[in-house]
Amino acid sequence: MREKSILRLCRDFALHDGAFALPSVLMLVTVLSLLSFAVLELLFLEHQLASKEISQVKAQYAAENGIAYELSHLSAVTELGFVEQDSTYLFADGSSSRVRVHPWGAVFLIESQGVFKHCMSTRRATIGCTPHEAFENALVLGNSSHQLVFTGDAFVNGDVAIGPAGVTTGSLYGHSTPIILPIKGKVKRLKPHECPQCSNEFLRGINHYYDYLMESLHRQEQSRAVHENSRGSFQGDSVLLLPGGGVLNDSVFSPTQRLFIASIGPVCIGPRAKLRGLITVLSGDSIKTLPGADLQGTVLVSKKSIHIFGSHLASVECLAGRIWLDSGTVMKYPGILLSLPTDSVAAGSQQITIKAGVLAEGFLAMLSPSGDDALILEAGSSLTGSVFTQNRLTLDGTLRGSAVAEDLFFYEAPSTYLGWMRSGTVERALLPRGFLTPPIFDGVRDFRILEWL
Amino acid sequence: MHSLQLAAGHDAGYTLIETLVALVIFAAVALPLGVAVGTLLLNKNSDRREEALLLAETVMNRSSVADSIGIVETRSNDSFRVRKEVHRHGDLEDVQICILSANDTSKVILTLSKTLRSGM
User: Fold this and answer.
1) Contact of A304 with A318, CB cutoff 8 Å
2) Predicted confidence (pLDDT) per residue in A325-339, tens digit
């Protein structure tokens, strides 16, 4: 009975719904086909995304590989100039990288763009060198005719390299006289040429590079032009000109490209200023940062002086004739202070002074032709890093690292004591192993990553 | 049987409907089946490649300049085998990580290459 009724229904449907059945079936087929294609498309997209993810990783590795190759290439170059370089590397897996090296303060900024298929990845880092072998010692006194004299609380934990005059203790009014030599390490005879020599070519390169930048900016300032993404020496970079000087009192962020803030006059970085990223502040006069200013990754270049009044610095480089770090300043690694001879600073008046109450990490160097220039670490200051001076060093503060100086001195009225140390301490073992310096010394350089950006 | 013969005998234009119904039945069965097979193949392949990438990156991140030179092959899990090749030239070290199928070691799923240098 039941079978019969179903057959009847089928027969009725076939006889009476002829016009309706065909469109319905076609629509159903179309909908089903579209749905199937959509699902397959979605799956194919997922497949493509997985492939793209792999390509992206390969592009990133290509960028890093480019940096590795460029570091190896730079380490093999004996006559290193302070110039921009551009290289392209092709790798066996089909990826490639374009590597550009720019001068960045006293070090280099390396930018690598890795490409694999249609994916691109950029890596950026600052690079420095492993320290010269002289910095293996805690203290190196280059002047072979001077004796190293310890008085007061001066103490060295590490090896001391010195000329034939040797080491002794001395009595000075107001200071205790050490009973034994306050050296926990070996006293070594300084061999000829053991003291690091500054690469003149590199120093000329630094001066020439920043002089050229200043000159270009001065020309632009005279024409009262403010350029964004200008051409010439600032190709691809941004330039902000402050005619006659100015105050930076707001946040400036430049995460993706280099920004040059320049003036022929003095520049003041105010207490609310936060400078982050690849920013270079250039001044034909002086640069001042006030308490509360916060700088990260910034390069300060002045023809005259840089005065840091209790600011917070991280990965900041200061290049000027005269540099002061005032009480309350915190400078985090990799900080670099470099005193260079400039036309605006009289011979013999170059200076780097680290005041009491400063906490600094990094590399300090005084490069000067005159014997009167001084690098001073005041009592109560603390530096984790290395110090190099072609002239005299007053070492009254705490140095967790090493010092290479042509001479040591301090002044107590009415005399200047050459070769003396009265209250400074040097702890060589506390210098971190990965510490790097700018590539300012002659000889074999081993370039490494100072900081990934 | 008799009634079925009757129905077929009297419906002259029934062939089109029959064809369409057959088409619908075919579409309703074949298309989801195709989608399911596609899903199985593509999705499984994508997941597998992503898993292989993660494994390759992990092995690569663990690599350092101090690693011994040569070829080392290890079985990672039921799905993959990892072949690591290290070659040194000058101060650079080329590291190549190959992720192979555990069942068929001639089938390379993914290869990553990286150049290492001390201090990077």
Assistant:
1) no
2) 999 999 999 999 999
ipTM of this predicted complex?
0.70
Whole-angstrom distance, CA of residue A407 vs CA of residue A421? 11
Query: What are the residues of chain B with a beta carbon less than 8 Å away from any beta carbon of chain A?
Result: 3-4, 7, 10-11, 13-14, 16-17, 20-21, 23-24, 27-28, 31-32, 34-35, 38-39, 42-43, 45-46, 49-50, 53, 57, 60, 90-92, 110-120
CA distances from A139 to A378, A402, A438, B10, B87 (A): 17, 6, 19, 115, 40
Helix/strand/coil for B46: helix
Q: E strand or H helix at A57, and its extent?
A: helix A18-76
> What is the count of structural domains for chain B?
1
Partner B contacted by A2 (CB < 8 A): no
Nearest to A129 by CA among A401, A398, A341, A334: A334
* Domain extent at residue B67: 2-117
- Alpha-carbon gap, residue A376 to A393, rounded angstroms: 6
Residue type (1 letter), A379: A
Residue whose pair of structure tokens reads 């079985």 in the numeric block:
B75
Asked if A141 and A163 count as a contact pair (C-beta separation under 8 A), the reply is yes
DSSP A437: B
In sequence order, what are the beta bridge partners of A404? A140, A388
The gap from C-alpha B45 to its chain's centroid, in whole angstroms, comes to 2
Residue B3 has pLDDT above 70, yes or no: no
Q: Considering CB atoms only, which of B13, B46, B60 is closest to A50?
A: B46
Closest CA to A26 of B111, B64, B17: B17
Is A51 at the interface with chain B, CB within 8 A? yes
A14 with B57: Cβ contact below 8 A? no
Q: Find out whether A281 and A300 touch, Cβ atoms under 8 Å.
A: yes
Please indicate if any CB of chain B lies within 8 Å of the CB of A34.
no
Choice between A239 and A279, residue whose per-residue pLDDT is larger: A279
Q: Which two tokens stand for residue A376?
A: 């001073």
Whether the CA torsion A417, A422, A423, A427 is positive or negative: it is positive
- Residue A75: list chain B partners with CB under 8 A: 91
Q: What is the mean pLDDT of chain A?
A: 85
> Which of B29, B46, B64, B99 to probe the A interface (max A CBs under 10 A)?
B46
Rounded-to-integer distance, Cα A82 and Cα A386, Å: 22
